[in-house]
Amino acid sequence: TESAAPSQSNNEKLRFSPVVTRLAAQHGVDLTTLAGTGLGGRVTKKDVLTAVEEGITAGSATMPSPRVPQAAPGDDQVIEPTPIRRMIADHMVKSMTEIPHAWSAIEVDVTGMVEWRAANRQRFEQEHGVRLTYLPITLRSVAAALKTNPRINSSWVDGKIVLKRAINVGVAVAADEGLIVPVVHDAAGASLLELAQQLDGLIERARSASMTLDDVRGGTFTLNNTGALGSVWGGAIINHPQAAILTTEAIVKRPVVISHNDTDTVVVRSMMNICLSFDHRIIDGAEASAFLQAVRAGLEAVDLNSEFE
């Protein structure tokens, strides 16, 4: 008898888009049983919907013949995901599958914050031995806004809304092994210096792969600073099982209309977009807007005369 040549399983070879994967999971469709009609035999959204209409689900008695995967071109590279990458992938799919995401965004005039940091950065770093970035200033406003908007700091658990008493803000960090979210505990009770010190240590440990369990557990909300990477707008995936995640974007100078005494003037200001991704089971649009307005108020209140504890 002939021995079968070693090969990967269908599940390992097949690749499906996030939309198709999500739709199939919602309707219990086994994607490996579908004959794709898309480019190169890919399974499309229409293929899944057709299967749903025909009653072809994972438990159906009648199944179409599995499609034969197309061989990958010889110059393609197949990468085996690391355990961390697999964990991230599973977590993202779980979040997008279980949480009904909604988004709301506003722009913030951070001219005063930019000027304050420029005026105090050197002294702050010399006196305290820690870098002064925009992140601790932003985190300070976020923590204060969470305190006055408790639904944003919550989770959906077993059909109930659980309001978190602690305000522990995770900060997304791009490390070599993937996305890591170390947590600043009791962020609402920390001074600007304490926030800067905690963030500096957490980010350093995240990037040097020396995190501890305490560094990553207990998060109740997440701050995603994609602006550090040059992004100007983005809607993040919520860090399950949290209720929301805030994305802060790059600070850019642009012309803005300022109204004063019924007179409009065009001036150049430092502007930053912020976007809240939220669980629509827990948070309505009005509540999301109220939180964003609170964050904006805190950031726009910073000017050259500001004094932080």
Question: Can you walk through the features of this model?
Answer:
It is a single chain. The protein is 35% helix and 20% strand. By secondary structure, it is an alpha+beta fold. The strands form three sheets. Strands 1, 4, 7, 8, 9, 10 and 11 form a seven-stranded mixed beta sheet that branches. The protein has a two-stranded antiparallel ribbon with strand order 2-3. It has a two-stranded antiparallel sheet with strand order 5-6. A hairpin with a 2-residue loop joins strand 5 and strand 6. Helix 2 runs parallel beside helix 3 (45-53), helix 6 packs across helix 7 and helix 6 crosses helix 9 (285-300). The longest helix has 18 residues, at 111-128. The protein is globular. Residues 1-13 and 57-66 have low confidence and may be disordered.
Q: How would you concisely characterize the structure shown here?
A:
With 309 residues, the chain is α+β, with helices and mostly antiparallel strands. Helices cover 35% and strands 20% of the residues. The chain has 9 helices and 11 strands.
Write the layout of secondary structure elements.
Layout: H1 10-13, H2 18-27, H3 45-53, H4 83-98, E1 101-109, H5 111-128, H6 134-148, E2 154-157, E3 160-163, E4 169-171, E5 173-175, E6 178-180, E7 183-184, H7 192-207, H8 213-216, E8 221-224, E9 244-248, E10 252-260, E11 263-279, H9 285-300
Parallel strand pairs: 4-8, 8-9
Antiparallel strand pairs: 1-11, 2-3, 4-7, 5-6, 9-11, 10-11
Helix pairs in contact: 2-3, 6-7, 6-9
The number of E-state strands comes to 11
The SSE order reads HHHHEHHEEEEEEHHEEEEH
CATH architecture of the largest domain: 2-Layer Sandwich
Count of DSSP-assigned helices: 9
Q: Which structural class should the secondary elements be placed in?
A: alpha+beta
Q: Averaging pLDDT over every residue, what do you get?
A: 86
Quick one: CATH superfamily of the largest domain?
Answer: Chloramphenicol acetyltransferase-like domain
In the CATH hierarchy, the third-tier topology of the largest domain is known as: Chloramphenicol Acetyltransferase
Question: Radius of gyration from the CA trace?
Answer: 24 Å
Which stretches are low in confidence, meaning pLDDT under 50 for 5 or more residues running? 1-13, 57-66
Q: Class of the largest domain in CATH?
A: Alpha Beta
Distance between the termini: 79 Å
Helix % is: 25-40%
Q: Report on the biggest sheet.
A: 7 strands, mixed
* Net shape: globular
Total count of domains: 2
Quaternary state of this entry equals single chain
Strand content: 15-25%
